[in-house]
Design a protein that fits this description.
Blueprint: H1 2-33, H2 39-58, H3 60-65, E1 67-73, E2 76-83, H4 86-97, E3 104-111, H5 117-136, E4 145-150, E5 153-161, H6 162-172, E6 180-188
Parallel strand pairs: 2-3, 5-6
Antiparallel strand pairs: 1-2, 4-5
């Protein structure tokens, strides 16, 4: 009896890891089920984002003077953040364009110093508010839309039809703190 308890006690830490893996898989699986991207595109987007950050980080000047966020949706990449000059802005986009699997790059980097923490906090609030409004909208598939906020600019990505795109923009347009809504949707019929 003691041996059995000892064996069970030794395997409990491994079982908790398995439970975490199962839970993570279930969450990712449910996200993918509501997504219009294929499972391959979903995985590719995660890979593109990780590789992009690694390659951008290899450029010392970009790494030290810029604040860049990379968002990939259906292999279309959105670059947001700040960099000190056009040369670095263009270099960042070129690095991303050369990554395997990238279909298109929206270079929305702004020429300025990196944002303050106050601005980042405001952006987090704007993103949360936009996601909440989209989610609360009746008869609207908000799961097809990715929301990103950067320095008061609200970016909308996803695979949507024209009616969904227009409705999403109308829903988030008047949020306090939103200076501009930028549509980077992939429009389907």
């Amino acid at each position: 009896m003691f041996k059995r308890l000892l064996i069970v006690a030794l395997f409990i830490p491994f079982l908790s890891g398995c439970l975490a893996a199962v839970a993570t898989t279930a969450i990712v699986g449910s996200d993918m089920a509501a997504d219009r991207r294929t499972s391959g595109a979903y995985v590719d987007d995660q890979s593109i984002e990780l590789r992009a950050l690694r390659y951008l980080g290899r450029n010392i000047e970009l790494k030290e003077s810029s604040s860049i966020n990379v968002i990939s949706y259906n292999r279309i990449v959105l670059l947001v953040g700040q960099t000190p000059n056009n040369q670095l802005k263009n270099e960042a986009a070129e690095i991303i364009r050369n990554l395997d699997g990238v279909r298109k790059v929206h270079n929305e980097l702004r020429i300025s110093a990196p944002d303050s923490i106050l601005s980042a906090t405001s952006d987090t609030w704007i993103t949360t508010k936009a996601k909440s409004l989209l989610l609360a909208e009746k008869n609207f598939a908000s799961s097809h839309i990715k929301v990103i906020s950067e320095n008061g600019e609200l970016f909308l990505m996803g695979i949507v039809n024209r009616v969904e795109a227009e409705k999403a923009i109308a829903i988030v347009r008047d949020i306090d703190g939103v200076e501009r809504v930028i549509n980077v949707f992939e429009i389907i019929r």
